[in-house]
Amino acid sequence: MCQINTDPMINQKGFLQVVVPPDIEDTAWTGDLVVREGTNVSLECRARGYPPPTVTWRREDPHDPTHHSVKVLEGQTLSIGKVSRLHMGAYLCVASNGIQPSVSKRIQLKVQFPPMLWIPNQLEGARMGDTIVLKCNTEAFPNSINYWTNHKGEMIAATGAKYDTTIKEESYKTNMRLVIHNLTKDDFNTYRCIAKNSLGETDGSIKLYEIEPRNPKEGSTQGSPTNGQAGERGEDGDEGVEGNLVNHTTREDTEKNYTTERRGRPRGKHTPSKKTGRDSHSKDSPGGTDKGSSYDHSFSYDSGATTPAAGRRGRGHDLFFVICAALLNFAAAAAGGL
Questions:
Q1: Peptide bond into 8 cis (omega under 30)
Q2: For 305-330, what is each residue's pLDDT tens digit?
Q3: Which of 103, 177, 245, 258 is most buried per CB count within 10 Å?
Q4: What digits encode the pLDDT tens for the residues 196-227?
Q5: From CA 146, how far away is CA 156, in angstroms rounded?
Q6: In degrees rounded to 5, what are phi and psi of residue 6?
């Protein structure tokens, strides 16, 4: 307080406030935690300073593929119920009160669980002499010991040119690969992938079977004419094919064939000729042929004949020739009766 002894007396009061940047107490945070899967977990982080700092939590990995990240939570305690392997990772505790600098502590949460295994394909097929890759994926923490065995239970070692084994680890996940080169008859058996850690053991089997060898004649087919080839054959060949349309001789077309024996001569009642007075089917004329006629009236037409031109004309042209044949036969019959 500042005071001046005057009449009246004058005084003025001042307030002094000391700010303290935040600080996280070493004895008030949990540090790294290792817990069993399925238990409840509480992460503690206490800070001091003036003004009193605010404590926030967030998952350190911003690209967490499981989407189980803690975005931003406030409070000195972070509680996770029934923790799982998806919660495994680093959590950041940040204390700030507006006075620089802010401080943070990292807490690593590790979740223990026995090995878990899954196989993409439990049945694999290959041919003699081929190379096959068998795949097996495991999850475990602590990290497991992983290996392959054959049908006799013997461990497969990546020695020589027969086998290759690869193990790729990422966090608590492991990808196992077994490559078998130049397959023989003895290689077609059951293979097992095994994973062990201090909490348990698991295994899975893959059955490798033989596929019949390729037939060299497979895939060889006799070529058939395409639409375009069929069209060319219809124009140059004798099948009457144009495009996809084939002009076949049908039963109806066959019945339309006309000859002189059928249409050129009268049938039924015998009529005498005006020139000879004889019947057209008299005994003097063998076979019923009129000797008084000096020319042959026969005319035939076969609508079923398949020629390149006939294949293109179609049935409309066939009807035209049938009518012409009928008229000519009628004229020939009339001339023969004169």
A1: yes
A2: 444 444 444 556 667 777 888 888 77
A3: 258
A4: 999 999 999 999 999 988 776 655 444 444 44
A5: 11
A6: -125, 180
Tokens of 324: 């012409």
Please give the structure tokens belonging to residue 7.
Answer: 């009449």
Torsion of CA 297, 300, 301, 305, to 10 degrees: -150
By CB atoms closer than 10 A (0-12, 13-18, 19+), residue 86 is middle
Residue 279 reports pLDDT greater than 60? no
Return the number of other C-beta atoms located less than 10 Å from residue 90's C-beta. Answer: 12
* In contact, 195 and 138? CB cutoff 8 Å: yes
Strands (E), 7-101: 10-12, 20-29, 33-36, 41-50, 54-59, 73-74, 77-80, 89-96
Measured CA distances, 68 to 61, 142, 168, 173 (Å): 11, 21, 24, 17
- The whole-number average pLDDT for the span 62-74 is 58
Tens of pLDDT, residue by residue over 5-48, are 888 888 888 888 899 999 988 876 677 899 999 999 999 899 99
